[in-house]
Design a protein that fits this description.
Distance between the termini: 116 Å
Oligomer: single chain
Largest sheet: none
Number of helices: 7
Shape: rod-shaped
Number of strands: 0
Order of helices and strands: HHHHHHH
Strand content: under 5%
């Protein structure tokens, strides 16, 4: 067994892997393994002698297989958490809320778009799983509240006596 094989077999009796793991390691690959070793040492998973030996082996490793063997028995080398992609916010939900807020500044022109965009956004969100249901709901509530207030205002004005007194 030559020196290159001793690094691999020292930590695990499995032969070096073939395929991509036989690919040459870069400085960045070695740096990641050194970082994992530092974490394992700080957590008490490695003794000082083990850390020093593995650190030397990591810095002289040539392939991914050699690096994998150095950290194969460490939990940090096998992360258990999955990265979940961030879902985007539905644009119509944002538009619904914006129209719902703008109607109080510019009047009832934005009321109908707030309601329409809100319903469309909720439908799209249910179908696609996007974020923004709360924004769409807020836009809908503001839009329908403006409609309700408008109806109440019309009813109140029509039931109040006119400027010139009661009609006969």
């Amino acid at each position: 067994m030559n020196d290159d094989d001793s690094t691999v077999s020292r930590y695990n009796d499995n032969p070096p892997l073939t395929g991509p793991r036989g690919m040459r390691a870069s400085d960045a690959d070695r740096d990641r393994v050194v970082e994992l070793l530092g974490v394992a040492y700080s957590e008490g998973r490695l003794s000082k002698d083990e850390y020093d030996g593995r650190l030397q082996d990591a810095l002289s490793a040539r392939t991914w297989a050699e690096l994998d063997q150095i950290v194969a028995d460490l939990p940090a080398a096998h992360p258990t958490t999955e990265v979940t992609p961030v879902t985007k916010t539905n644009g119509l939900a944002v538009a619904s809320l914006a129209c719902g807020l703008v109607q109080f500044i510019f009047g009832p022109l934005a009321t109908i778009p707030a309601i329409v965009f809100g319903h469309m956004a909720l439908h799209q969100i249910r179908r696609s799983g996007e974020q923004g249901a709360g924004l769409a709901l807020a836009g809908l509530i503001l839009g329908w509240a403006a409609v309700a207030l408008g109806i109440l205002l019309i009813v109140a004005v029509s039931m109040s006596p006119g400027m010139y007194g009661p009609m006969h």
